[in-house]
Design goal:
15 helices; 5-stranded parallel beta sheet; Rossmann fold; single chain; two-stranded antiparallel ribbon
Length: 346
Amino acid sequence: MGIIIAILTADCMRTLFIHCGLHKTGSSALQQALFTNRRLLLEQGVMYPEVGIPPGACAHYNLAWQLSRDRRFQRHLGELNAVLRGLDGAHHSAILSCEDFESSLLHPRRWQAIRDQLDASAWQVVVVVYQRDPREYLESLYCQLLQSELGQEFALFASQAVRERRLVYREWEFVFDAAQIARAMQQVDGVEVILRDYHALTAGSVIDDFCEVVGLNPEGFVLPPGLVNPRPALADLLRHFYKNRMGGSSVDASEAIAALCERSTGPLASPRNIATACEGLMDARPGQRRSPLARRSAPDALDIGKVFSFETCLMISDLRAMGRTQAAARLIAGWQQWTRLGTAGE
């Protein structure tokens, strides 16, 4: 399952663990558990600093934003330098956690700057990264970014991610290739990286798995209720997509989208060409690769690339103009057949 690192306290070597997500790998639940149980962590020799955590949050967003030069960084919420200086006189190991550290994973100089500010004779730095099946990551990330004004067609979004093995959107940088992460971190003196498979967690829990990696005993922890981030309904996603494509138009397309979706109840799934292209990316455990092609899509699955497309936007506009007429019904039926996974255009 990976490397277990013992936590050393007092006059021994201490460890700064930096949990970097990735996005969509249970980071929120882990961060809530760490934040809620700060006292119990200290009893085991580990700090979870409050510096850099915005009000109402549990993760070190401000520190990650500073590292990645993100415009959301606010000096008054705490800086990395202050945290690192505070560690110098500490007799505890420490954990920093934020999925937005992902945006810095391919930038060795940023991590070298952290390493260089800590006494190498007293501190080791360990970066922990959880990886998700790349096809699932693409689909989930796309649906999330639709809610952050992304208006790009899924086919273009996915092809860029697969071609470049990373994706840049605003200040975010999403990484789809574990080998790239490993190569970048090899350029940093004195920093170790641990790659974990999100689909093979200890006890099926990212909290238990991270505790195993760090060497913590989670017994007695107050755990957060099951944090589930369900994917929004298709109609809601299409509303975001249409609005974003139309430049934030205030035109209400809800009725047209509802008509389009009323008989489309299947889950979204990537077509086979995307699944094939994703195979091999972010291979967390050599020799035990989980091929995306091995997981069959549901019989009623909708091709996510055809749903979130130029043609769908045109159809929504046509439906708005037609209303619920017989012609509109034929248009809807044609769209439903066209978007089924495995139909024409694969």
